[in-house]
Design a protein that fits this description.
The complex is a heterodimer of chains A (296) and B (248). Chain A is mainly alpha-helical and 296 residues long. Chain A has one domain. Chain A is 71% helix and 3% strand. The longest helix of chain A has 28 residues. Chain B has 248 residues and is an alpha/beta fold. In chain B, the strands form two sheets. A six-stranded mixed sheet of chain B has the order 6-7-8-3-9-10, sandwiched between helices. Chain B is globular, with a radius of gyration of 18 Å. The chains are: A mainly alpha (296), B alpha/beta (248). Chains A and B meet through helix 7, helix 8 and helix 9 of A and helix 2 and helix 3 of B.
């Protein structure tokens, strides 16, 4: 039982990192990327391969995966960020589909549909993180660090430039800002931070295959942000918590008929999401509910 | 005598069959306010867009202190000292009033700006001073979108005031202002002329045009029909007929 809850909380922490990092570009730059799961996958495969062939240290795997994600995002985002709004959504969707195909078909590296199995236990400063407790602790620290980095960025001139571009790109350019470069850097930062989640995931489940990195995953991460509150720092974490815990909590409703449990869970889950969006359209800690996203 | 700050020679721009700029010749003399007037669709905002690089002219030349502006884009135009406001304001709506002003001074794409901590402190002080100047200190932490229309207009002006730009292009900056706000606006704008700023603005209200302008250029159907002293332009019966839609 404790293992189940810890496992759930680790997934919440990993999803929290994914949501916080995606929110950096959705909430603060207005870049709606459907390719976050692709970078999640790139980092997971990178982490798994590094662990299997180079080092099991998180301090090796995470920085390398972050660098790979950032570099790939630069290659991809420089041309696609020249298009705006819904056009970027379509471009990123295409990227997500390409990534999935590569994960599935590049069998020599990714193991194809079967994926990579037997990712060894992660280590940190020489200690093996074999217990769920220790891995949860590390995941939580990573989530805190990623959130802190986002916090720092949002309240610097870079964050203001991002928000200015989000609010009005033409005006921002007219005041000397370079939207393409600023958005490209933002996507690189977001992708790099997403890489942290990918590595943690690969080590946690000790197995990666393409099924985890589909467009559904991108939509799910986006849902976490919208539910928690777009453009807020803690909203995405709350969203991740709800997305993971609500279905789990529904399993405790013992009065539900066992035969229809799965279907009823989906209906309740879906209805809860719809109600949430009706009554809290800006998310649980959206802008309309607090004076400032940090409650200042 | 010094030459014009900005000079347009034979500038043309067409959108399909619509002539937006028709062989436009226009000079903006330094340290003066030149107002562009004309009926709707005369091509006034198009001229601003051509100057700032939002649009490219089909032909003609645009020079800023003798150097060509052709091929520039809005960002480069800003870096060369042109600040522009918009008819529809284009504020950074979800950002606070203070952030709106601060953000326009932060031009580096990197997560840090020039000047380190001292530079950051200087920019903040300048933003605070500018907000005080336009009377928005009390709204400092409000989101731009939550301001009233007049306050939004002054925020738009504050974003221009805080720049180091030497040429201001203001698109209907005083429309919708009450008389007291308008007087404040005129004082703020004229007060900067002595700092070497040159201003070109678009305005429809002829009382405002008369009150603020040093020179007027009258446009119709993309062409500059007349340019000169305000009194001469505003008293021209033929231009008045065009302006009020009374041409044959």
């Amino acid at each position: 039982m404790q293992g189940y809850i810890l496992n759930l909380l680790i997934l919440v922490a990993i999803s929290g990192i994914l949501a916080v990092s995606l929110n950096f570009i959705i909430g603060y730059a207005g870049i709606y990327s459907m390719a976050h799961a692709a970078f999640f996958g790139i980092a997971a495969y990178s982490g798994a391969l590094i662990a299997m062939h180079v080092s099991t240290s998180l301090l090796v795997a995470i920085p390398i995966a972050m660098a790979i994600c950032a570099a790939l995002s630069l290659v991809i985002s420089l041309p696609s960020l020249r298009v705006r709004g819904e056009y970027f959504v379509v471009a990123s969707l295409g990227l997500q589909m390409i990534a999935f195909t590569v994960f599935s078909e590049w069998k020599e590296v990714t193991g194809g549909i079967g994926g990579l199995t037997g990712v060894p236990v992660a280590t940190l400063f020489g200690y093996r993180l074999h217990s769920l407790e220790s891995f949860f602790g590390v995941s939580l620290i990573c989530l805190a660090l990623v959130t802190f980095v986002i916090y720092l960025l949002v309240y610097t001139s870079f964050g203001r430039s991002l928000k200015a571009i989000r609010d009005n790109e033409v005006a921002a350019a007219s005041f000397g800002k370079n939207p393409v470069i600023i958005k490209t850097i933002a996507v690189a930062i977001s992708s790099a931070l997403c890489g942290v989640a990918g590595v943690l995931y690969a080590f946690h489940v000790s197995f990666v295959n393409p099924e985890t990195f589909t467009v559904d995953q991108s939509v799910l991460i986006m849902a976490m942000i919208i539910i928690g509150g777009t453009g807020t720092v803690f909203g995405p974490i709350l969203g991740a918590l709800i997305i993971h815990l609500l279905p789990a909590a529904l399993t405790y409703l013992t009065f539900l008929p066992a035969r229809d449990l799965a279907s009823l869970q989906q209906i309740i889950y879906g209805a809860a999401m719809v109600l949430l969006m009706i009554y809290r359209p800006s998310g649980l800690i959206g802008r309309s509910n607090v004076k400032d996203t940090w409650g200042k | 005598m010094t030459g014009p700050v900005l000079s347009l020679k034979g500038v043309n721009k067409r959108f399909g069959g619509v002539v937006a700029a028709n062989d436009v010749d226009l000079d903006l003399p330094p340290g003066l306010i030149t107002t562009l007037v004309g009926p709707n669709g005369a091509g006034k905002t198009t001229l601003f867009n051509l100057i700032t690089g939002n649009l490219r002219p089909d032909s003609g030349s645009i020079t800023l202190r003798g150097a060509s502006l052709l091929g520039t884009d809005p960002r480069k135009a800003a870096l060369r000292g042109i600040a522009r406001s918009f008819q529809d304001l284009r504020l950074f709506e979800q950002m606070s009033v203070f952030e709106n002003v601060l953000a326009v001074m932060e031009r580096s794409a990197l997560p840090w700006q020039r000047g380190g901590r001292a530079g950051a402190r200087e920019r903040r002080e300048k933003a605070e001073a500018t907000l005080a100047q336009v009377g928005l200190t009390n709204w400092r932490n409000a989101r731009a979108i939550d301001l009233g229309y007049a306050e939004q207009k002054f925020l738009s002006l504050a974003r221009i005031l805080v720049t180091e730009a030497s040429l201001w292009l203001l698109d209907e900056p005083a429309s919708g202002l009450d008389p007291a706000s308008y007087d404040r606006f005129v004082r703020l704008v004229r007060g900067r002329l002595s700092d070497g700023v040159t201003i070109c603005l678009i305005e429809h209200n002829l009382d405002i045009v008369h009150g603020i302008s040093d020179r007027i250029a009258f446009l119709d159907q993309g062409a500059v029909l007349a340019a000169g002293e305000p009194r001469a332009i505003l008293n021209d019966a033929k231009l008045a007929a065009i302006y009020f839609g009374e041409r044959r």
